[in-house]
Amino acid sequence: MFDLSFTTGVLVVLAGFSAGFINTLAGSGSLITLPLLMFAGLPAPVANGTNRISILLQTISGTLTFKKNNLLDWRFGLSLAWPTLPGSLVGAYIAAQLGVQGMQTAVGALMAIMFVLLVAKPNWFNGKERPFTLRKGSKTLTIVMFILGIYGGFLNAGIGLFLLAAIVSLTDVDIMRANALKIFTVMLYMPIALVTFFVHDLVNIWVGLLLSLGSVIGAWSAVHAGIKFGQGFIRWLLLVVVFVSAVKFTGLYDVVMEVTPWAMNK
Fold first, then answer.
1. Fewer CB under 10 Å: which end of the chain, C or N?
2. C-beta of residue 36 within 8 angstroms of C-beta of residue 22
């Protein structure tokens, strides 16, 4: 039973702050919020659904900012993003059908994969290397965006990296405008995923609003910090959080505890 106590509320705001800060400096803030929401006591499916409130509000703000600075082409964005809409519905439905254990295992497995990528491809994280390069073409782009929509609807953690890689690889826009299109795309499909989680009673609205409050403060702080700590600090922070989360949510932690002599003698 999840109890939104004062301490838990503080943890949620801190989780949102961390995600807002990370998203502004590097991206993949859901790799922070999902584990912290789950550690705070939310079941994995509810944490996944609740996290979408914060993401939606972040992307609305980001989209308006990019548009204000003439970095977003609405028409091109719509032609690019539409396949993610049905994809997100499929992904969110799959996520809603998974039980607590299934979602925890999925989260752990995906974080284990992300940990390996962060270690093996540091230049990818720093934006100096494309994760993949595909031939340009509308059919290929539609298929890729549909698949990414499924992933975004299912979990969304790390989707920014994949969307940015796909847009840069498959279109002629520069990295700044690709980032604007990425934010715009997530803003479009996120309401569909959020409604799906709401229908299945997998959203804690009060926790979501607290998370959003923290993320706004975190993003504001990151802008004024001027990337003071650098990409290296953010990468190491993500490595630690992703590693611990992967160990915890794949069940490896429980296995280790069971076979450790001192734990068996407790």
1. N
2. no
